[in-house]
């Protein structure tokens, strides 16, 4: 399959919940394969609904989802095959954990694939190492912290070795070191060719980390752009009621004061500090 072909494409997808509210409204979106994608938007904008559509937990009322170049197969066998390739980590770990022990929970997916015991053990070992929980393999799940439970959920998905990883607010409830470790893990997965799509309210993190930004509003994806193009799209982003990354606002202010040279906007505070450490601008004065 060509790497130029998107791994996922939503075409005018509509979804209405059984109790009435409309979760998605004429939603169209393309996800480039093997890239970092951040899904932004207010509560109720449709981010979680969209993630669950991609994993087959919810099915469109109208429109079409194309996965890896083919319309998504909503048959029982098709959905089983989909979930072997597309993993979803929920925002609330209590909705995803069901075994009493960490090792048992992480091994559930690989066992359902019919893998032999040695392969399952190796996958679980590697997944727990990836999320920093090797020492907790035999721990009771109910004794773990909220952040540890979220990492167990992630390990359970990683043990399936998905091609696409979907994460709903993965940074929520994690302290700074855990967030840094998760970011490093996601980067390593993308380097292996995994496509990552995560929902977040944190525009600063999304701008620094993602290759592509997708904005959800009222059940529709109203903007999709490479993160590096956000500075040029800043007015439209503001008109959509979205805050700009603080590093971008600070860079613009420093440029107006002549404290940094004109050029590409930095994506992180570390990059901005690097600009400030360069020799200051010198204003040339002409004399007769």
In short:
With 288 residues, the chain is an alpha/beta fold. The protein has 2 domains: 237 residues, P-loop containing nucleotide triphosphate hydrolases (Rossmann fold, 3-Layer(aba) Sandwich), CATH 3.40.50.300; 35 residues, no CATH class. The protein has 10 helices and 10 strands.
Describe the protein in words:
- This protein has ten helices and ten strands.
- It has 288 residues and is of the alpha/beta class.
- The protein folds into two domains: 8-244, Rossmann fold, CATH 3.40.50; 245-279, no CATH class.
- The strands form two sheets. It has a six-stranded mixed β-sheet with strand order 6-7-8-3-9-10, sandwiched between helices.
- The longest helix is centred in the middle third of the chain and has 16 residues, at 176-191.
Summarize the SSE layout with pairings.
Layout: E1 8-16, E2 22-31, E3 36-40, H1 47-54, E4 62-67, E5 70-71, H2 76-85, E6 86-89, H3 102-112, H4 117-130, H5 146-158, E7 164-168, H6 176-191, E8 195-199, H7 203-209, E9 212-217, E10 220-226, H8 234-239, H9 246-256, H10 269-276
Parallel strand pairs: 3-8, 3-9, 6-7, 7-8
Antiparallel strand pairs: 1-2, 1-4, 4-5, 9-10
């Amino acid at each position: 399959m060509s790497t130029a072909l998107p791994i996922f494409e939503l075409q005018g997808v509509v979804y209405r919940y059984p109790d009435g509210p409309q979760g998605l409204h004429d939603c169209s979106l393309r996800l480039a394969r093997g890239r970092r994608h951040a899904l932004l938007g207010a509560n109720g904008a449709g981010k979680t609904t969209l993630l669950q559509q991609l994993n087959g937990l919810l099915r469109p009322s109208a429109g079409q989802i194309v996965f890896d170049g083919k319309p998504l197969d909503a048959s029982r066998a098709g959905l089983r095959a989909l979930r072997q390739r597309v993993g979803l980590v929920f925002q609330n770990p209590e909705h995803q954990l069901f075994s009493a022990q960490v090792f048992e929970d992480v091994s559930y997916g690989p066992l359902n694939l019919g893998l032999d015991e040695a392969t399952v053990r190796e996958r679980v070992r590697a997944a727990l190492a990836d999320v920093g929980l090797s020492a907790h393999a035999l721990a009771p799940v109910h004794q773990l912290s909220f952040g540890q439970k979220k990492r167990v959920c992630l390990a359970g998905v990683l043990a399936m070795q998905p091609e696409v990883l979907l994460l709903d607010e993965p940074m929520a409830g994690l302290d700074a070191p855990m967030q840094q470790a998760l970011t490093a893990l996601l980067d390593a997965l993308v380097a292996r060719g995994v496509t990552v799509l995560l929902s977040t309210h944190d525009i600063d993190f999304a701008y620094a980390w993602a290759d592509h930004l997708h904005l959800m509003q009222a059940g529709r994806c109203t903007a999709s752009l490479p993160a590096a193009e956000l500075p040029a799209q800043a007015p439209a982003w503001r008109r959509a009621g979205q805050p700009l990354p603080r590093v971008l606002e600070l860079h613009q202010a420093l440029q107006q004061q002549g404290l940094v040279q004109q050029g590409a906007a930095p994506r992180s505070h570390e990059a901005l500090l690097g600009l400030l450490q360069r020799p200051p601008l010198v204003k040339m004065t002409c004399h007769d």
